Amino acid sequence: MTARVLTALFALALGLVAHAAAPFDYALQPEKIADGTWALIGSTEDITRGNGGNIVNTAFIVTKEGVVVIDSGPSRRYGEQMRAAIARITDKPVLRVFNTHHHPDHFLGNQAYAGVPIAALPSTRTGERDDGSAFADNMYRMAGDWASGTEPQVAQQDVQPGLLTVGGHELELIALEGHTAGDLAIFDRSTGVLFAGDLVFLDRAPTTPHASIQRWLRSLDMLGALNAKKTLPGHGPVHAGAVGIEQTRDWLKWLDETLLQSASRGLDMAEVMRLPLPERFARMSLARSEFERSVTHLYGAYELRALDSAARPVLQQK
Ligand SMILES: [Zn+2]
To answer: pLDDT tens for residues 140-163?
Structure first.
């Protein structure tokens, strides 16, 4: 065998290795959840190099006029593969993308929708602009090359809350808050499907890096009043009834109560993190690690409040 043939074989082998290692295929399988309505259900794990950040639910509605997309996923690659998955189902154009909130797993796929108007609540757009680059860097650190080439594409339009009719679907755009400063929920009155974004989690512990628990609880009350037939949570399975709203409310109330009591007992952060979790949360994915993260995010404020109320009587005596 000549050196040239060997070199050629070597190059071919390298090519095969590169090909085998480089598909980065999210294997997105749209699941039909209602008439013309499809969901892409992500895993309930943390972001890893195995799942490429596909830990999130996204969705699209095929209307008579075209397609409405709800969240674009964790990376440019996901957005592109989502768009290809949509094209396998319909040849109608994508009319509009909504970002439910500014967290990276929900909007870093925006790049794939160049030329399509992307809309979000004003505070979501601000968050995408301010945190987008750091989010994209962090996604790359956690997901690796799945996220290569991903750059934050900030939504260009403000969502106008209220009714929007698209191709026969009556969409109620609801401006809420609590998971972040701007949480968009979309209720399709035509099908009874609620796209809840991260205001609702099911069988996966809620994340709280930008949360206000009291506002979140109020938002859950408003979502509950819609009496949706089906709910697509931001994370976890699509479901009928209010089970996701109830479980999210249960977790948030327990979290609030636990942090309040711990602060009044004077526990330090490490002690709070070691507290036992209630049995009813045992089968919830990531319950322990999200609880620990929530302690990191939220406990300081509870400690300050406890110090404040302990100091007040002393001040009043003076
Ligand atoms: Zn989120």
So the answer is: 999 999 999 999 999 999 999 999
How far does the centroid of ligand 1 lie from the alpha carbon of residue 198, in Å? Answer: 5
How many independent structural domains does the chain possess?
1
CATH number for 29: 3.60.15.10
Residue 162 lies in a domain: yes
- Whole-number Å distance, alpha carbon 306 to ligand 1 midpoint, is 28
Q: How far is the CA of 100 from the centre of ligand 1 (A)?
A: 9
pLDDT tens-digit series, residues 234-257:
999 999 999 999 999 999 999 999
Tallying the residues shown for the chain, one arrives at 318
Q: Which domain holds residue 45?
A: 21-250
Q: Say how many C-beta atoms besides its own lie within 10 A of residue 200's C-beta.
A: 31
Output the CA 197–ligand 1 centroid distance in Å. 7
Q: Is residue 268 part of a domain?
A: no
